[in-house]
Amino acid sequence: MSEKLSCAHCGQHLLTYEPREVKYGNPIRTCPNCGREYLDPRVREMAISGVPGKEFSKAGMLLCVAVGAVIALYGWYKFGQAVRLPAEIRAGCYIALGAVVMLGGIVELIRVLTGTKQKKYDFLMEESQQRVSNESYVAKLKFLGYPFPEEEQAGNDQSS
Ligand SMILES: [Zn+2]
Q1: Residue 14 Cα to ligand 1 middle (Å)
Q2: pTM metric for this prediction
Q3: 146, 47 in Cβ contact below 8 A?
Q4: 15 CA distance to ligand 1 centroid (A)?
Q5: Which residues lie below 8 Å from residue 48, measured CB to CB, with a gap of 6+?
Q6: Selection from 3, 102, 124, 1 nearest residue 55 by Cα
Q7: What is the pLDDT of residues 104-147, one digit of tens each?
């Protein structure tokens, strides 16, 4: 499923990545071979692309917790039924798996509820807005083919 990116100018292999992988920051990189600039396809400029709502979806996290709980409970039920060791071990695996899914959801939920995640994203957004307030930086992104959302084309016109 992973894709490869090569330099458009010299063909140097630059990186291998998962298409769904997303990071936030400055996507402009320099080819180590020819020194030309390119875009890291994994990196989004937050002030331009925004943050997907799912990053803060409490419903998604609660679903995660609920699914984890169901798996763990099912495991617990199977554990009660189990008499022989292999079945016990299998049930134990369900409990462990469910607990991990549940904990993952709980940790994310706590990060959102306490504002820790929001703070981190606010900080990233501030950095991003600083970069985007630089017109030549935005022009460079456009030149390199960064995907701008359609509606926000007239975004930063009145800055000086
Ligand atoms: Zn190159």
Answers
A1: 8
A2: 0.56
A3: no
A4: 12
A5: 128, 132, 138, 141, 146, 148, 149, 152, 155
A6: 124
A7: 888 888 888 888 888 888 899 999 999 999 999 999 999 999 98
